[in-house]
UniProtKB/TrEMBL annotation:
One term of GO molecular function: calcium ion binding
Organism field: Chanos chanos (Milkfish)
Binding site for Ca(2+) 3: 331, 360, 362, 409
Protein name listed in UniProt: Phosphoinositide phospholipase C
Chain spans, region Disordered: 1-21, 472-500
Gene name in the database record: plcd1b
Residue ranges annotated for the PI-PLC Y-box domain, each copy included: 509-625
Length: 774
């Protein structure tokens, strides 16, 4: 009996310890998020039941609750721990109220509209469709999740790092006694991606265990944290400029900004930086900056490697539309491969939210007289054409306000083409361009600025655009083609076969094709003589690359007053991509890629369009907009494009690199590769040695030098991999940006995962200097 009582007493005691541990963790994490005592955070931490929807017949209650780290959502079946699963708030791309996903619209009735909401994830993870018990509860879930996610996204990298390390410590504290034993310390180090030998772990433990009691507690854990997070490279830089009683004065900081960062700043701006970044109020009052304040400055978004001036639209947007590179997607409706993968309106939303400005709609006759979108003659699923147009209408201008081109691959009967035209006109309304801007026949494209918030249709047209103003100028309609017809004609010519019959075109659909009429390409000379500015050709990647390599200057001149769209070869059934850089070098505007496929080519696309406020439009260099241009990226003769730069990069260190394969017990052995993309003369890459067993704070201090001859067209890509001597290295993260968006000096480089999403605490620290060649 006494034994049972002791067990119960010990059990109650352990419960109290665990509760105290949990409350302390919640207070710390809530404080970091700026949400201590916040009712929305409290609601999520309490959790509640929600109905999870997978199909008409599969609807089951699940309990959802935010864990004490304030970032992991935990859910279980009927509150049974053994069936618990989780995901992090960092995995969430968006939370949408109402029946906005295909699943909820298909599997639920309108009656639950106010109680339904969806959680959409980054990458290829399926949506989570949920129904709350009341409309008020649904609103609370949506607003609370959005609030916590918003606060988490507002943390700088230093704060995210602190949050991550603290919660790794919590996980290592297995018995939740708020103390760290030697065994727990080793477990923690392994968890944060550091492998140390027993002697070093013992030395580190004994150095912090000042009470000699065999575990770390309170101030001792803080001391351990300080040793762990010490950045020796930052100490060295700070010490070189901290000339005022061991601290940085505003003048000291100004000296650093001018000599190291090569920034054009004043003393008042240096004082402003101290006021924003310094955490010590006493130092701030004296206009001094401590080492912690200096580190905070280096982690600020405006201090990173990407020039903050390029975060907004800074280029001239009043040039004709064809003077810009345009972010473009191929077979936008597909979520995966080209043969049997799902089609989804969500694919359009994802592309548009990534600033894609040209999306493709592959249209076929559907049942019930409603046109559908899918990859014809394959097992890919189908979506209604009108649903795709509705999704495009809603999300087209959330990331960028500049025009969206709808590229139609039309395989429909005349009757369903009429319905396509009706849906676009009725759904897109006045945003759809249905006649040329102005009251007379234009001689060139309108600008992105003039077309803000508007939709353009690319497709076949029965007659010349001039017919709108002069009925007698009808012209020939037979020349208008779709991309697939162009491709089929090429294949027929190669095999000496008859060309396939052309599809009949509905006048209603033809009439809304204004600035982007699809036509055959019969050579550069014919295009110059016979085609109007609004008549554009599409090129399969192989043909386009051949033209870019063998007739580069002709291609550039063609693209000065015409639009060109490039699309992947039909053999890419896995939705892989081609290298877009040679096509950009040739002045091609609409270089369409499979946005659904994570790959280095999509990294380059994301990097190219990172600048100019992520508007999806990048003004081409002047020599790609000049009809008399002599520029040839292959031969690279002398001209305004030659601006020889010498790029010096020192890869100093990395921080908090994640272990990508969670099943592997080994620690990351990271290496860094710096790659240059651009004209052939600029293409280069250099790689550091790998660091064994340290993904937490590896240090390289390796110097690289690159010659860049055409910086306007160059991209710089930083890649981090986990070295493997027996197989291919494993990708950890990357960051790509235009050469002309680089900031000089000591800079942190954020890292993106394979899907192009930020790795919250991970990054590189480099020194960079781009200088004019002598």
């Amino acid at each position: 009996m006494q034994c049972i009582q002791r067990q119960r007493k010990r059990s109650r005691s352990e419960t109290l310890v665990h509760e105290a541990h949990s409350k302390r963790a919640i207070r710390h994490n809530a404080s970091l998020l700026g949400m201590e005592g916040d009712p929305d955070l409290k609601f999520l931490l309490t959790g509640g039941d929600l109905l999870k929807v997978r199909s008409r017949s599969w609807k089951k209650t699940r309990f959802y609750k935010l864990q004490e780290d304030c970032k992991t959502m935990w859910h279980e079946s009927q509150k049974k721990l053994r069936s618990a699963k989780n995901f992090t708030l960092e995995d969430i791309a968006a939370v949408r109220a109402g029946r906005q996903t295909e699943g909820l619209r298909k599997y639920t009735d309108e009656a639950v509209e106010g109680r339904a909401f969806s959680i959409l994830f980054k990458g290829r993870r399926k949506n989570l469709d949920l129904i709350a018990s009341s409309e008020e509860e649904a609103k609370l879930w949506v607003s609370s999740l959005e609030k916590v996610i918003g606060n988490m996204n507002n943390l700088n990298r230093q704060q995210k790092s602190e949050h991550w390390i603290y919660n790794c410590m919590l996980k290592a504290d297995k018995n939740r006694d708020n103390k760290m034993s030697h065994k727990e310390l080793k477990s923690f180090l392994h968890h944060i991606n550091i492998e140390v030998d027993d002697d070093y772990a013992k030395m580190l433990f004994e150095k912090c265990d000042q009470s000699k009691c065999g575990y770390l507690d309170g101030k001792e854990i803080e001391h351990f944290y300080e040793i762990l997070t010490q950045r020796e490279e930052i100490d060295v830089i700070y010490a070189a400029y901290a000339k005022t009683n061991g601290l940085m004065s505003a003048q000291n900081l100004l000296d650093f900004l001018l000599s190291e960062q090569r920034e054009t700043v004043t003393l008042n701006e240096a004082i402003s930086i101290i006021e924003k970044c310094e955490l010590d109020e006493s130092a701030k009052e004296k206009k001094l900056m401590t080492k912690d304040g200096f580190l905070m400055y280096l982690h600020k978004p405006e201090s990173m490697v990407f020039n903050p001036a390029h975060n907004k639209v800074y280029q001239d947007m009043s040039q004709p539309l064809n003077h810009y590179f345009i972010s473009s997607s191929h077979n936008t409706y597909l979520m995966q491969d080209q043969l049997k993968g799902p089609s989804s309106t969500e694919a359009y939303i994802r592309a548009l939210m990534k600033s894609c400005r040209c999306v493709e709609l592959d249209c076929w006759d559907g049942s019930d007289s409603e046109p559908v979108i899918y990859h014809g003659y394959t097992l890919t699923s189908k979506i209604l054409f009108k649903d795709a147009i509705k999704a495009i209408k809603e999300y087209a201008f959330k990331t960028s306000e500049y025009p969206v081109i709808l590229s139609l691959e039309n395989h429909c009967s005349v009757e369903q083409q009429k319905l396509m035209a009706y849906h676009m006109i009725s759904i897109l309304g006045s945003a759809l361009v249905t006649k040329p801007l102005g009251d007379k026949m234009p001689t060139c494209f309108p600008s992105p600025e003039e077309l803000k918030g508007r939709f353009l249709i690319k497709g076949k047209r029965l007659n010349k655009l001039e017919a709108i103003f002069s009925p007698e100028a009808q012209g020939e309609g037979d020349e208008s083609v779709t991309e697939e017809e162009e491709s089929a004609d090429e294949e027929a010519e190669d095999k000496n076969e008859d060309k396939p019959k052309k599809l009949k075109l509905a006048k209603e659909l033809s009439d809304i094709v204004i600035y982007c009429k699809s036509v055959h390409f019969h050579g550069f000379e014919d295009a110059q003589k016979s085609l109007s500015f609004y008549e554009m050709s599409s090129f399969k990647e192989g043909k386009a690359v051949k033209l870019a390599e063998e007739s580069a200057n002709d291609y550039i001149r063609h693209n000065v007053d015409k639009l060109s769209r490039i699309y992947p070869a039909g053999l890419r059934t896995d939705s892989s991509n081609y290298n877009p850089v040679p096509l950009w070098n040739g002045g091609c505007q609409i270089v369409a890629l499979n946005f659904q496929t994570p790959c280095s080519e999509m990294d380059l696309n994301q990097g190219r369009f990172l600048q100019n406020g992520m508007s999806g439009y990048i003004l081409k260099p002047a020599y790609l907009r000049n009809a008399e241009s002599e520029f040839d990226p292959i031969t690279l003769t002398r001209g305004e494009w030659l601006q020889h730069k010498v790029l010096h990069i020192m890869v100093i260190s990395a921080q908090q690199l994640p272990k990508m394969n969670k099943k592997k017990s080994s620690i990351v052995d990271p290496l860094v590769r710096v790659e240059i993309f651009g004209v052939p003369a600029d293409v280069s890459e250099k790689e550091t040695e790998h660091i064994e067993n340290n993904g937490f704070n590896p240090t390289w201090n390796e110097n690289f030098q690159f010659d860049v001859y055409v910086p306007d067209l160059a991209l710089v890509r930083f890649v981090v991999e986990d070295h493997d001597s027996t197989s291919d290295n494993e990708f950890i993260g990357q960051y790509t940006l235009p050469f002309k968006s680089l900031q000089n000096g000591y800079r942190h480089v954020p890292l993106l995962n394979k899907n192009g999403d930020i790795l919250p605490a991970a990054g590189l620290f480099i020194h960079i200097m781009a200088l004019d060649a002598e």
